[in-house]
Every structure is written in C-alpha cells, then in structure tokens.
Amino acid sequence: MLGLYVHVPFCAAICNYCNFNRGLYDEGLKLRYVAALLDEIARARDGTPADTIFFGGGTPSLLEPAEIRAVLDALRRSFAVTPGAEVTLEANPETVTAARLAAYREAGVTRVSFGAQSFRDEELIRLSRLHSAHRASAAVAEARTAGFDNVSLDLMMWLPQQTLAQWLVSVDALIGVGPDHASLYLLELYPNAPLKDTMAREHWSLAPDDDAADMYLAAMERLDAAGYTQYEISNVARPGRESRHNLKYWQDEEWLGFGCGAHSTRGGVRWKNRSATVDYIEAIGAGAPLATEVRTLSPRERAEEAAFTGLRLSAGVDLEAIRLRYAVDLWDERRHELERFVDAGILSYDGRRLQLSRRGMLLANEVMAALLGSSVLE
Amino acid sequence: MDQRYIRNFSIIAHIDHGKSTLADRFLETTGALQAREMEAQVLDAMDLERERGITIKAHPVRLNYTAKSGQQYVLNLIDTPGHVDFGYEVTRSLAACEGALLLIDASQGVEAQTLANAYLAVENNLEIIPVINKIDLPSAQPDECKRQIEDIIGLDSETAILASAKAGTGVVEILEAIVDRLPTPTGSFEAPLKALIFDSWFDPYRGVVIVVRVIDGVMRPKMRIRLMAAKQDHEIDSLGVFSPKATPVDELGAGEVGFVVANIKVVADAKIGDTLTEVARPTTEPFPGFKELKPMVFAGLYPVESSQYAELREALDKLRLNDASFFYEPETSTALGFGFRCGFLGLLHMEIVQERLEREFNMELVTTAPGVLYRVTTTDGVVQEIDSPAKLPDAGRIAKLEEPVISATILTPSEHVGVILQLCQDKRGVQKKLEYMKSDRVLINYEIPFNEVVLDFYDRLKTISRGYASLDYHVIGFWESPLVKMDVLVNGDPVDALSMIVHRDVAYERGKALVAKMRELIPRQMFEIAIQAAVGTRIIARESVKALRKNVLAKCYGGDISRKRKLLEKQKEGKRRMKRVGKVEIPQDAFLAVLKMGTE
C-alpha cells in the first residue's frame, strides 16, 4: 500500500547543523503554501489505498491543527486511506502544549515524533535548539495526556564536545521518559554547516570515530535492556510500534511526497518536487509540472536499491525475493565482494537473507557500496 | 647556400630564465611569424612542454634576418632541452652549432645547469654571447650577473648584452651580435655527405622526421642515404626547413640545418647523435661522440584496471615510436598483476611518460617507486644488471653488488652551504670540491649514489635552500656497496611492488619511515592491517592500521534514495582506484610512499 509524505518547510529558527529543505516561518507564506499543498493533493487524486501518512519538515507542528486536518481531509479525498492508518506528525518540543497536541489528535494524527536531540541543556544550546531538556520530557507527558499511545523521540549522538558518558545521560533520560519509539542519529556535518564555524571559533571538537562507534553500541545495549527492539540501523521501538511509514522506504515499497522538495517513488520511477517553497507555490498556481530529478530505474537499479535500503533493517534483506521480483541475482553477482564482509564477521547470509550484525550496521556503507554494480548517476 | 651567411646557434638557459620568450621575439623580429599568428611560445610545441614551461625536444627554427648592414642571413636557432634528464640531447644540439647565447636571468644569476651547459659549449668550441635577461625587473642585478659570469663560468662579461625578451629590449642587439660574433660554418660542399642527427620524431603522416645539421656535402631528394650507427640505408623522400612551419627545400648543403623524411618507421632507427651519409660515397669519419642512450631510472607501470593491460601495451608502443630513450618490458607482480617494467632517462622523463599515458591515452596507472640499475656479480662470477628489486638474486648467491654513482654539481648562495653539505652526507655522498666564489656563490661537487638522488634529493635541496640552490649531475660509474633488499609485508604477505634496494646502514631508518607513511596512506578497513618492513626474514619495522569501525549514513531522509545511491557510488569509485593485495585494499599512491617519506 502507498505511503503519503507531506513536507512542511517552515522552522521558527534555523538549526546550525541542519541542511534539510526548510526556511524561516512566515505566516503569509504558510497560508499560500497550505493552499498549494491542498491543490497538489487534489490533482493527484486516484483512489489508491494508502495506510501511512507522514508530516515531515521543517517543523510540521508550526501548522495549525485545523491546517493539518484540512490536509488530511484532502488526502482522504484523493486516496483510499485505510482506517487505522498511521498518521505521524514531526514536532519540536517548544511548539506544543497539551491542548495543541489534543487538537492534532482530534484532527487525525495518531503518532507524534519529537525532535528532542539531547537531554543535556548545554548540548541543546550548542546545537542552537530552542527547547530545553525539561521541555522535551514535558512534551512527551503532554502527548500522553492528549491520548497519544505512539510517541517517538529523536536523539543525536556524536555532538561537539560530547563524551560517551554524556551521551549516555541522554539515552538514560530517554529511557526514563519512555517513548514508544526512538531514532538515534549520528550528527552529520554538511560542508558549509554554520555549526562548523562555531566549532572552529569555540574550539569544540568531535570525539574520534571509534568513540562514535562506542556511543552507538552502548546506546543500543541500554535500549535492549530497557525493552526496546532495534529494527533498523538508527531506529528502535517497543513491539508493534515500528514506524510503518519509514519501513516503506526500506522495504522496497511505494510512496508519494507532497510539498516542496518531497520525494516520491512509484512504479520504478523516483522523482523529487521542486525544492524552493515559492517556486513550488508558483508552479502549482501556473499548473506547471513539479517533478524534477526524475529517474526511471532499470530492473538492476531497482534490485540494487531494494538491497541496500533493505540492508538497513535488523532483519536483513531477502535477496531471494529481490531475485524473483527483478530477475537480478545480487548474491551470485556480488558474492566475491560480499564474502569479505561475511569473513570479517559483520555480515551474514543464510542462502536468502543478507543481514548486518550490529557492529556491521556501523559499517553499512561499506557493504552497501559493494551491492552496487556500476554507476548510474552522474 | 653560401656558408658565410649562415649562423647556427643555441640558447643555453636555466628553466624560467626566458628562453622561449626570447625565441618568440626572434620569430617576430625576423618576420617569421606575425605577432597575431603567434600563440605564446611557439617553439614548445607539445602541450605538456608549454604547461610545464620546459622544453623536452629540440625544435630548430630557421630565421631569415636582414642585418643592419643590409646583408641577408640565415640564422638557425637550435633549441635545447632544459632538464638534466636530457643532457645527451643537449650535447648533440650544441655539437650542431658554432655559437650559443648564454641567457641568464638578471635577478636569479647563474644556476648549476647553466654552468654545466656553458662548460659543454666551451668544450665544443662554441663562441658564447652572454645575455642578461629580464633587466626590466625591479629585482634585476645585472652587475652581480656579470660578476658571476666572470667568476663562476670564467667568461668575459664585458660584451654581455642587457635585454628584456618580454619587453623586446636588446633583441636586435642580440641578432646583430649573432651575425657579427659567431663563426661561420666551415664544411666542404665537395666532401662526402656528413650530417649530424640531433633530433627525430614520429609524424603519423610522414613517418620519422630526422633533424640534421649538415657538416659536409649536400643532400637532395631521391639520394640514397645511410644511417651509420644504425647501419640502415634509406632513400630521401623529402627535405625541408622549419621557418618555423615545415617548408620543403630542394637541397640541404654544408652548414645548413633542416629535416629529412626517408620512409623510416621508428625513431629508434634514427638515433640522436648518429651520422647520416650518402650510400654511394660515404664519409670515412662519422661525427664523433655518438652513444646509445641508456635508461637510468626504472619503475613499474600497471593499469589500475587489469583489463586495461592490452591498452597500456598499445599506448606504450605508440609512445615508443616517438621516444627511443624509453624502454619497457612486460613484468608481473603478485600485488599489481600484469604491467610493465619501464626505464627512463630520469625522474622528469618518467613523469612525462606517465602524464602522457594518462592524458593522451586515458590510462589510469599505478606506478611503483623508481629505482636505478644495479650491477650484481653472483658467486659463479656472472655479472648482470638488474632494473628491479624483484630480480635481485638471493643474498647467498651475491658476490658483489654495485650501484650507479653520479657527479653532482650544486651552485648555491653561501648561506645554505651548511645544510646542503649535511644533505649530501646523509645521502652517502663523498665530497669532491667545495669552492667559494667571489660573488657569494659556492660551487659544491659531490659523488653520490644515484639511487639516493632518485628518491627525494632534488626536492629536499630546493626546500633547504629555499629554492636558491641548483643542481646538475651525470652518471660517472658504479660503486660497490653493502646493499640489501627490503621487503614490505601487508598482513604478512610480501608486496613485491613495494620492495626496494637500500644501503644496509639506512635500512632500519628507511623501513620505519616507509611503514609509517604507508600507515597514513592505507585507509582503515574491515580488519586490522599489519604493515611490516623486512630484510630477509628479519622484521625491522612495524605499524598497524586499526580496523574501521564506522562508516554509516544514519539518516535516510524523507525517502531520498537517489541521494543515498549517489553517496555510495562515490565511495565505490574511490575503492575502484585501489589495488587489492590479499584482502587489503591499497591506494595507488601508497605504492609511491617511498617518495613521500619525510613529507607531511
């Protein structure tokens, strides 16, 4: 079944490490944007069944509950959204109150995902975040009060100046707060990130790579002990609380993205909407095409991409299923390279599934690159 | 042509002292080319030469000059290679001349190579006209230059011409001096044909083009000629001169410079220094001084992709058509697969060949560290020369090992003498001469094992003298030395392409530096990698590359799979350029680690 993604490109402040498609919040622009979104969704009407909806950003919780409701209504008109569909809203802790969360729930949101990032104020300040550690815990409590039984938290590790012990303070705090799902990311500094300049100015440094690996492994062990199950490289959940929407990205399924810069995959074609917010709004107004970077994948590319995305999952990826689907036998073709990872003890293959060990997950790029035959992108 | 109105000359100059610019001015002034036709520095024809600002091959140019007296002259400018690797070509170019311009940069002064070439010119009885160039520069010190000309080279500087090729000043004075001061050729038209080959190259349409200076006699199309050293006869197809475009002529007589096309297929058959004569009436005395050029520096060249082996062979074949001084034979390495052992005149020559293979033939290459030719006497009394550490017999079978030695002349301002002497000592040199000149220059002469110079001598010399010291050298013979073969083991497997021959006393230190550099160059992989240096079975140094623990992109944002693919492809591309030895992936540049020791 289809997954539906809606992009909200507004933020109250720009974080110094983030290069997602976003810009500063502007009331007038937001109104025009929501209207454009509704237009785009109406145009895409085809009645296909869909069982997940994901509001990502940016900061989707800057949209009013009524706006979220309007978008959900539009999606229900255009697609056969199943009863019990997972509807996720990404939210920043400082943007919510118990009342606002209740209104989102009322509007149809079933899952909230808070960008907590850290439970240490010192680190939140370094990241130029607007909330405090206390606000993050409070937001989860407010979500519970509002009736959400599916709450996720994002944490980032390998922050400037962060030690292993300090990282585990955040992990323990997260366990204490008790979300149903958590995503743990390694900070990635893109080339011109303002945080890089700040780091240079303040003489902040990152722990060595090996310590980053230790942070990851130690966090996963604590989450295991606390009853969470790791189901993907960066994601853990209580039983039944995996992100159904994100699983589509990793299980070779299809999704449609709405809004500026949103990505879609359907029928072996991948594309991306125009990125710039105003450009997107104007294209909608003019009835101009939105899709850019359209890639029609060959069966080989589809097989390779199904394999490397599937490899992110703890359960591994079923190469036999890929062979039957695309008639490309990746194990047979790449065996020589893949066996090196098996020998190194970070990958296993049982004749069907290719599976990374936890230590192997930290080296996922090495294995994934080996799954690619030849270059297809410029 | 009347020899009284011919002048044949070369320009002796250090790199960057303005030789090409001056040659351009000659072309302009004599009307050989209009300024608008000129691309800067016409004589350096190959792109590579222009980019590097060095001339590899000598291209003669015929200039028609009307002197102030009103008399018409033919001036043949015979360009000379500007690098020590091509010393023999320089001697042949000078042998084709009666005179030379000694071009000196007014702010740099006399450099070692200029000195060496000036001595060569004197030995060849050439009349020398000193020219002090770049006098328009604020840093110009023409008086200091004059002092150096007298003091270091021993020439009268009274008659030196002050010029700026760039600004065009002094150019006519130089042309007049060439006419007035250089001797005329003195060959005989009636004598049997004798012509000196001082250059040759392969032209895809005409075959080999031979450039000659006619000493005696005259040649015409259809004449049957003999290449005396090559012992080959050919019929002259066409004759011509470069003015500077190739222009056909009906004859080339005594005193003249021009080119001969005679249906010759490979440059190796028309060797520089060979004498050309008439089959019907051969000269009894070939021009003296011919020698076979011998490669001195050897390295392995391997394709990055083993499937490119056949292509590499074809590319080498093609290059060889045009470069007789370069040698190659198939070689197999357990580490690198199939490739070629290649011999070069020197390091620059090696770089040029490498660059041409990469640029003109799109080859991706792994080059192994360059080494020299060693002479081995085995216990059974057999003497052999080996061009690769892999060919060195077992230590037990070696009775005597000899390495080539050079005579190195270094010219430096006196403040750097201390560090330079230290460098020469470190490189196992033996001091032969140390002479303080009046003009604050010091002339240093050392005999140094060539192998030490091949590694990083020149770079270090430039660094420690802040660019002021200059070097000239030539190979003088062999020394017996206690040499050993040092192997490098990666995860216990010897990597043959990394073996090298070193002096016993420096093996430990070299080994340590080499494995330390290798540790920097080999990226972390799935497992720990041990890098060891060994002499025989004895491990003399060890480093390890720790296992890679993290290479993951945590977030796969909003379903952007294409971006993820792009990142993975980039990573894969990086790996493709590495060579796998056993389980270890070794980047191309690690095979040249030995050249990078001591650099950050």
Offer a concise description of the structure.
The complex is a heterodimer of chains A (378) and B (600). By secondary structure, chain A is of the alpha/beta class.
Topology:
The complex is a heterodimer of chains A (378) and B (600).
Chain A: E1 2-8, E2 10-11, E3 23-24, H1 27-43, E4 49-57, H2 65-78, E5 80-91, H3 98-107, E6 111-117, H4 121-126, H5 133-145, E7 151-157, H6 164-177, E8 181-186, H7 194-202, H8 209-225, E9 229-232, E10 235-237, H9 244-250, E11 255-258, E12 263-266, E13 269-273, H10 277-286, E14 291-296, H11 299-310, E15 317-318, H12 319-326, H13 330-343, E16 347-349, E17 353-356, H14 358-361, H15 364-371
Parallel strand pairs in A: 1-4, 1-11, 2-3, 4-5, 5-6, 6-7, 7-8
Antiparallel strand pairs in A: 8-10, 9-10, 12-13, 13-14, 15-17, 16-17
Helix pairs in contact in A: 1-2, 1-10, 2-3, 3-5, 6-8, 11-12, 11-15
Chain B: E1 6-13, H1 19-29, H2 47-52, E2 60-66, E3 72-78, H3 87-95, E4 99-105, H4 112-123, E5 127-133, H5 142-153, E6 161-162, H6 171-181, E7 194-203, E8 207-216, E9 218-219, E10 224-227, E11 232-235, E12 238-242, E13 246-249, E14 252-253, E15 257-261, E16 275-278, E17 297-303, H7 309-322, E18 327-333, E19 337-344, H8 347-360, E20 365-367, E21 371-372, E22 374-378, E23 383-386, E24 398-413, H9 417-426, E25 430-436, E26 441-449, H10 450-464, E27 470-480, E28 483-490, E29 493-494, E30 500-503, H11 507-521, E31 529-535, E32 538-545, H12 561-576, E33 578-581, E34 584-587, H13 593-596
Parallel strand pairs in B: 1-3, 1-4, 4-5, 5-6
Antiparallel strand pairs in B: 2-3, 7-8, 7-16, 8-15, 9-14, 10-11, 10-16, 12-13, 12-15, 17-19, 17-20, 17-21, 18-19, 22-23, 22-24, 24-26, 24-27, 25-26, 28-29, 28-30, 28-31, 31-32, 33-34
Describe the structure in your own words.
The complex is a heterodimer of chains A (378) and B (600). Chain A is of the alpha/beta class. Chain A has helices spanning 27-43, 65-78, 98-107, 121-126, 133-145, 164-177, 194-202, 209-225, 244-250, 277-286, 299-310, 319-326, 330-343, 358-361, 364-371; strands at residues 2-8, 10-11, 23-24, 49-57, 80-91, 111-117, 151-157, 181-186, 229-232, 235-237, 255-258, 263-266, 269-273, 291-296, 317-318, 347-349, 353-356. Chain A has two domains: 2-249, Aldolase class I (TIM Barrel, Alpha-Beta Barrel), CATH 3.20.20.70; 299-377, Arc Repressor Mutant, subunit A (Orthogonal Bundle), CATH 1.10.10.920. Chain A has 15 helices and 17 strands. In chain A, the strands form four sheets. In chain A, strands 9-10-8-7-6-5-4-1-11 form a nine-stranded mixed β-sheet, sandwiched between helices. The longest helix of chain A has 17 residues, at 27-43. Chain B has 600 residues and is α+β, with helices and mostly antiparallel strands. Chain B has an eight-stranded antiparallel β-sheet. A six-stranded mixed β-sheet of chain B has the order 2-3-1-4-5-6, with helices on both faces. In chain B, strands 22, 23, 24, 25, 26 and 27 form a six-stranded antiparallel β-sheet that branches. In chain B, strand 2 (60-66) and strand 3 (72-78) form a beta hairpin. At the A-B interface, strand 8, helix 8, helix 9, strand 12 and helix 11 of A face helix 12 of B.
